[in-house]
Amino acid sequence: MKKTLLRPAALTAAVIVILYVMCALVPGPHGGARPSIGAGSGKRILIIDAGHGGADGGAVSITGVPESAINLDIALRLDQIMAFFGVPTLLTRTSEELDYPPDATTIRKKKVYDQRRRITLINSTENAVLLSIHQNTYPDASPHGAQALYAKTEGSKELAESIHRALVQALGAKNVRLPAKVPERVYLLNYAQCPAVLAETGFLSNPADEALLKTDAYRLRLAVALAAGYLSACTNEQTGGAS
Ligand SMILES: [Zn+2]
Predict the structure, then answer these.
(1) How far apart are the C-alpha atoms of 183 and 63, rounded to whole Å?
(2) I need a surface site. Which of 56, 99, 114, 150 has the fewest CB within 10 A?
(3) CATH match of 42-238 with 1.10.10.10
């Protein structure tokens, strides 16, 4: 995984996010601003969850790239963009290496320990919003595109819809699938008590998606879209609007 992140492109990314959010906030033909996700009394904290990591590499792409590395790279880029906007963030991991207790002797035990560690962090954070980043995979090579999956908690669907709109802007409608409810087997999203969205940013089993996901430019574009989608949904809180 590359250690070099945004730096030269960071300012450009921030400008794109600002432009997108400004457009998204223009009232539609029927008047009224876009809905925001709930009216928290404090400033929202964005928890950026790079899926998998450590003993769990997640899916493997058709050329052998582990999902965990792509997720982490997009998560770190998103974190840098959010810093420009003064959005407080917490990352569930910042490295491909994870520490485990001595009794976590199998991969299964390590995964269970890690998922519990993440959910404890999420549910002990006040005013949290969870954005989990993953890549999709399928036995057939044809499915492609990004998708925002939402949890059952209040505000999750609105956040997924906002991220969907930003992904459509960034990637084009043909490469974005409609928002959907997250499957019950996804532990973090089903136990998170805050607004929560899982972004599947592409298919590692699709040659075109996989080739794009290996490039810095595409990962940056995804991070920009996630940032813009989050900021559009949470603008009332992030701009300090008294609510
Ligand atoms: Zn995954």
Answers:
(1) 27
(2) 99
(3) no
Distance 23 CA to ligand 1 centre (A): 31
The rounded Å distance from CA 135 to ligand 1 centre is: 5
Give the distance (Å) from ligand 1 centre to CA of residue 6: 23
CA of 191 to the centre of ligand 1 (A): 16
How remote is the CA of residue 28 from the centroid of ligand 1, in Å? Answer: 35
Centroid of ligand 1 to alpha carbon of 188 (angstroms)? 11
Domain map of the chain by residue range? 42-238
Mean pLDDT, each 10-residue run in order, the chain (243 residues): 54 72 56 49 89 97 97 98 95 98 96 97 97 97 97 97 96 94 96 98 98 97 97 66 39
DSSP conformation class of 83: H
In the DSSP assignment, the letter for residue 100 is -
d(CA 211, CA 77): 19
Using the mean position of ligand 1's atoms as its centre, give its distance from the Cα of residue 120 in Å.
Answer: 19
70 C-alpha to center of ligand 1: Å? 10
Helix, strand, coil percentages in the chain from 3-state DSSP, rounded to 5: 45, 15, 40
- The sign one gets for the Cα dihedral 118, 136, 15, 12 is positive
- Closest CA relative to residue 136, chosen from 51, 72, 46, 223: 51
In the three-class reduction of DSSP (H, G, I as helix; E, B as strand; rest coil), residue 66 is classed as strand
